[in-house]
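Appendix B. One record, verbatim.
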Amino acid sequence: MLTISRERLDSPVALSLIDALNTELTERYPEPGANHLELDPDEVDTGRGTFLIAVLDGTPAGCGAIRVLEPGVGEIKRMFVPFAMRGRGIATALLAGLEIAAHELNVRRLVLETGARQPEAIALYRRAGFDFITPFGEYVGSPLSVCMGKDLHG
């Protein structure tokens, strides 16, 4: 059974998943300055964002966050499903949970950054209705960044 729930960014399970994500990103992008890993716990506190954990049959299976960048606009951060858990629809479920959280935060547009060496992530976001956008914020001038966006309805 898959469950998705809110979790504190600094909880042990969250820190474990984020550590695994950072390890994978460092392996895929060993270049200095290639990774944009910043996300503070206060950025996903109530009213400013959320951090979600997926658990499959009692095992942590993924995570994802949304932080409000400006009124009506949220950024998806720290989306990750460990390799052994991939291919089970967990990332799709996390993304759906983040869209629900976006509505709760009065976010009407989601943006995100992923990497050029993550074709599976790009495919996930494309299937979910995200389109390619001009790099924004800290990703401007980052040659390995791929930025995407989606307008939410309802």
